[in-house]
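Re: that chain you flagged

S.,

Sorry for the slow reply, it's been a week of failed gels. I finally had a moment to sit down with the sequence you sent. For the record, here it is as I used it:
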Amino acid sequence: MRSSTGRIVLAAGIVALMAACSADVDSNGYVFREGDVTEIRPGAQTKEGVLQALGTPSSRAPFDDNVWYYIGERNRQVAFFDPELIERQVLVVRFDDTGFVESTEVLTKEDRNEVALVERETPTAGHELTFLEQLLGNIGRFNRDTAGSN
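Prediction finished late last night. Pasting the structure tokens below so you have them in one place:
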């Protein structure tokens, strides 16, 4: 009897630990629905029509107000580990100069570009001060108490 109770408690503990380490899936940004892309037809809709159909874009191109981005992604995170990107979709809507949809494009996480970080430092002009030069260089540079002078 005592052995089976211990096994039940042990099994319940293992199940509780496994439940605590389950993955959390978070959705961020624009939530894509079926038909969102097919609803936007080039040459037939204006910016106002796209706003009514999809809402405000997640972002606009910094130097071209005629390119709108609807960005959505899902991430999975287990316990304290870094989140893992499961899915990313970016709907790019381009407009012509008259305000009508020119083209649409859907990008996924496979279309992303990896940016390689550079480890080297940029050199600066001048010379580097030693610790002693920094310490002694401040002697005599302190402001005098100006509270008594008017």
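What I noticed first: The first strand starts at residue 23 and ends at 29.

Talk soon,
D.
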